[in-house]
Amino acid sequence: MIYRLFPNPELELATAPASRERLVERGFERAYENAQEIGSDTVIQHIQAIRLGGRGGAAFPTARKWLSVKNEAESIKYVVMNADESEPGTFKDRELLLRDPLGPLTGLLIAASAVGAQQAYVYVRGEYRDVEIRIQEAITVLAEAGWIGPGKVSIDVRRGAGAYIAGEETALFNSIEGYRPEPRVKPPYPTAQGLFHKPTLIQNVETLANIALLFAHDVDWFRAVGTDATPGTKLVALSGHVANPGVYEVPFGIELGALIGDGQYGGGTGTGRPLKAVLMGGAAGTFITPQEAFEARLDYPDLAKFGAGVGSGAIMLFDSTADLGRILTGLARFFADESCGQCVPCRIGTKRILELLETQRLWDRRADLKDLATAMTDASICGLGQTAANALVSAMNRPSLWNEPAAL
Amino acid sequence: MNHNSEGSGAVTAHSRDEEGGVTELQAEEHEIVVGIVSRFPRQRTWLLPVLWQVVEELGWLNPDRIEWISEALNVPYAEIYGVASFYSLFRWEPSAGPEVHVCTDVMCTLKSGDSLYDDLTRASVDQTFTVASVTCLGRCDAAPACLVNYEPVENATIAEVLERLRTLAVEKGGEQS
Amino acid sequence: MLHLTIDGVSINVPAGTTVLEAARGMGEYVPTLCWHPNLTPANACRACVVEIEGSRALVSSCSRQAEDGMVVKTKTERVHNARQVIAELLTSTNNTASAGDLQELVSHTAANTLRFAGGETWEQPLRDDNNLFVRNYDACILCYRCVEACGVDVQNTFAIAVAGRGFDAHIDTGFDRPLPESDCVFCGNCVEVCPTGALLDKKEYELRQSGRWEEQDITTTRTTCSYCGVGCELELHVMDNQVVKVTSPEDNPITHGMLCVKGRYGYEYVQVHEDITEPAP
Q1: Domains and CATH numbers, chain B
Q2: Which of A26, A139, A198, B126 stands the most exposed, by the fewest C-beta atoms within 10 Å?
Q3: pTM
Q4: What is the nearest CA distance from A371 to chain C, expressed in angstroms?
């Protein structure tokens, strides 16, 4: 077990998640002061040095974003913590914020001073009331520490109201602004015109927690675990047919087989039945076979060999009783329910895919489905429509997943 | 198809009196809504927090309440409706009790979230609470999950949900007495 | 000037030109459904997508500014597939009988209008709640033009907005209240910009319903609106010596095709034939 993003068990027992003691013991106070001292250029160089990519799913190079926002000439800028997590299988930010909220918030404040923002926002989904309360407690701790307040950065917590697409960065801006959370067309990118059309740095919770860790320690410490391509650790969320569902912190490069089977992690299916399929990266991720899973390591270059990615860190396991057709129908329903409806390929495409699955015409409409999936990937405005058919296509491309007679 | 199928066509909740005048209840609610809006700066960015506050204090959204928000916050009525109808956690119908949001998404269904939804729907015929199915609540590790009055219940069973509802009812009774 | 390549041809365009304008300027076919020359691009229909080197996904050309060195392809297999599927998805959903641009997209892409048909559609009753125009939302492709015309692009009335989400996203006055009870001022600019006939002047609707709307019999006469001092240019559409519709030229520098309720709908007085023999009481 490795404890970086999560505090070690002793500390977790000894201190409350939102407390001054935790702030100090975790080194976040040091991190905050450190970052102020070395200045924004060095801060960004250090982030560059650890090759940090966004942990929300897209893995965009973090240092590049920070530099873009910092270099914008506008006097008003914003930083946003995106805590609007969740698609099926993804719940790691919930766990991180509940167990150690001061890390991501410290990262957010470091970000604000590095890019020159006076106002920070935390956008948390409306389904996470427990998380929202924890964030508020943590903000109180930061206020008492004198990091926020009059004349300093202020943090505003905004609550979503049940809309997955509001987690898309530009849709999130619209939601905060009081408009429908429909994604905007890019460019302009958020770094130039984001929230209130001002330069905005928006980062996932886990990305910001990594920032706090980096400056609580140093580049070498950070790089001591993980792979060359991707230093550090990742929070993965195990769910489905798994003995020990939950969120685990693991170094990049860990064998997926260990993650799934090892007693300290997943511990196998827990059902006494064999594993049938693994959905990697979230609802818009890639289905891989057990064989592929046992060959793969948790890292971007390695998973790319299987057409998969780390995504949000979601790993969903299905044993031999799982009805793949039903699971795919459920995923299709999720995207049809959560499409904002703005663009034609996604609004109607997600609906038609759901209908094809519901009427069990997946295989005789294979060619049509391929064209539809391609059009959605190519022509949808945002990531939701562009990836809505990923899991379906990956499953259809793996005949061995369908060997069960119970399948479609 | 009915294009108000998101359950938002609750025009029935519009309760003018016989002559089309303003009822006592409306006057009271109007004051509450205006009071809520006055707690926020009069800027559009506060629309979502205002909507949440109205739902929390009055229970649901209806044409009157949207109209009052529109006037007080200076945001067009149609646009407020457009924003509010996007989100799945707002309520549009008056109901006697708290709302239970049951996750019927992929991972919860794998752990019988769909039967929990069916069981709760059957149990709700006494109309002391309402049941809605929702997409992923982000608690797949503790499936099936639901929200009772927006508070999460993990590894939910019908017994536990009903117990939570009973506790809520007792708390509410305590507040009133 | 910016230098870019479109379908292998080098061209120069002034800064601020969109990829759509650049491509159309050199005679390429780039279809649009939601784009309108006098409105903010909504990027909703996605029919205008093109391939731009360096972009993973296709790019909506209507809203993308041309950049120096850009390499654009408008005729690739991916572009064709996207446009064809978009046509097929819309025809599987909407009544397209009066949607000219969409029909053109269908024929240009050789779309199979039955390919994705058979599922849920947008069939719904006509909304006929006032004397000036009807709303036939089963033809609505959600192009956002009416919302933009009603909002900041033209009228600043905000009587309508998009509501709901996903397949159920739709144009709404708020709880679907009738237009006369809404904030609508009946300028009819939404009708003017509607590309599918979902919004139609009541007069035109009634004439079409009774089979008396004959496009070839309509002549247009340009004149100036007599109601106020702005002097908007009007186009009177006349059939059988009767005004059946009033519009303003889209390229008119004052109106940009937009009018107010009087200019657009206040024309009946010109065709009242009873002589006025005494002053009104």
Answers
A1: 11-84 (1.10.10), 99-176 (3.40.30.10)
A2: B126
A3: 0.95
A4: 7
